[in-house]
Amino acid sequence: MINEDELLAEIPKQLFIDGQWTDGREAGMIRIEDPATRQTLAEISNASVSDGLDALASAHAAMPAWEKTAPRERAELLRKTFDLISERSEKFARIISLEMGKPLQEARAEVTYGNEFFRWFSEEAVRVSGRFGLNPEGTGRITTTKRPIGPVYAITPWNFPLAMATRKIAPALAAGCTVVLKPAELTPLTSLYLAKTMEDAGLPAGVLNLIVTTKSKEVSGPIIDDPRLRKITFTGSTAVGKTLLAQAAQNVLKSSMELGGNAPFIVFEDADIDAAVSGAMIAKLRNMGQACTAANRFLVHDSIAAEFTDKLAAKMRMLKPGRGVEKSTSLGPVISSDAQQRMIEHVSGTLGRGAELASGGSIPLSAGYFFDATILENVPYDANILKQEIFGPIAPVVKFSDEDHAIQLANDTEYGLVSYAYTRNLDRAMRLVDSLETGMTGINTGLISNAAAPFGGFKHSGLGREGGPEGIEEFLEARYVLFPTT
Ligand code: ADP
């Protein structure tokens, strides 16, 4: 049995720069809160602008040696990290659950998923290759190789405190890049424990540096402007992503952006409705709906909408809210008071547009930032809730009449991350794959993330891919050499 206080005491509370744990140049602490109780979990160092630049200097200084290490050596560090995280998996799961609020079972799933990036990229590190071939004119041999692009600035959000970091660190290190990681100030404890675990695995000084700050914009600006930085990788809101892209343009940084989503979850009249309801529970309520992949709009055929909604409501009513680390909990809190407030506004605003409440709609527990798993039905097509990323446990249900109508509704958004569709008709499924404007589609499933697959979106949902063989390319650039034929 893991004691909570002992576990919290094990987590470093400082910045990690050049292989040293440090308080930073300016005094100042960040209070980390348990969203289920609002109680303080820990106080950690708050990085200043100069700490950010120290971290970049350290990543830059470590780059020449790190990029020259043998790919096998990098692979083995990543594999060792994978093994250590596996050994400590229950500790990681509890830290995630404490600071972020998700039920322990989901936190355990995040550890498995997040850690898989270390294993996957330990295998990819030794498979980076180029090509060699005759040019069309026959006058020369085109040779290409790839090199690591350079120091990376990685900014991660609070919703998957481990997986969002490992998706960036593992491919960057595999490619031969060094990293400055800035996790979200709401849930940094998991990243701090990850840095300690990597240190224990034998991480060389400066290869991963970690800063946490309440002044994200002020601290990030000078890092992004600095010519020593060559790459930015970000997961978070579309609004912040656009700002970062504009800043990155000044320094011509290679940029990966995993931004917001507005996922349609389409249930056709030929679907297995019980399977669709189970998939909907996952796609909507994993992380209490606080995921860019969360189902944001339920598009359900007229003829089955009532049955689908009733069955989904029955399952949602069985959820037990509580602290994530308690065994009985199946619904955690949302992350903050602001998030809770947004849920209240979404419900009242959508009811005001003529929708009806099929389930939930209020605050079940008063201590933390809880909100009921909620269904709104008969939502009008132009309701605001269908245009915004809800990022919480509310399911708006919209009816459609036929396949073309469903596709038109699904694509009617500036986002394009993921879509889900339930149908037993194979021809229809194939048509959907071609016509849904999303980087990822789940057919008859509500969960698609996998370290071996390219995660990423079309349109305003982002640039670049994380995971799969594609994931390491984001940290590499091609070099071409011509050898004339004689
Ligand atoms: P979310 O809505 O998930 O909190 P944000 O885009 O606000 O998404 O935050 C994601 C990450 O981006 C966090 O680490 C946050 O601290 C950071 N962040 C927010 N604003 C800025 C900014 N202007 N510059 C750099 N990082 C930022």
Describe this structure in words.
The chain has 486 residues and is α/β, with parallel strands linked by helices. 39% of the residues lie in helices and 21% in strands. It has helices at 4-10, 49-68, 71-87, 89-100, 104-124, 163-175, 189-201, 216-225, 238-250, 273-285, 305-317, 337-352, 403-411, 426-435, 470-473; strands at 15-17, 20-22, 29-33, 40-45, 131-134, 140-148, 152-155, 179-182, 208-210, 231-235, 254-258, 263-267, 295-301, 356-359, 374-377, 394-400, 415-416, 418-422, 440-443, 458-459, 462-463, 476-484. The strands form 6 sheets. Strands 14-15-16-13-12-18-19 form a 7-stranded mixed sheet, sandwiched between helices. A 6-stranded mixed sheet has the order 9-8-7-10-11-21, with helices on both faces. Strands 5-6-22 form a 3-stranded antiparallel sheet, with no helix packed on it. Strand 12 (263-267), helix 10 and strand 13 form a beta-alpha-beta unit. Helix 3 runs antiparallel to helix 5, helix 4 (89-100) crosses helix 5 and helix 4 packs antiparallel against helix 7. The N and C termini lie far apart (72 Å). The model has no long low-confidence stretch (mean pLDDT 98). Adenosine-5'-diphosphate (ADP) is lined by residues 155-158, 182, 184-185, 216-217, 220, 236-237, 240, 243.
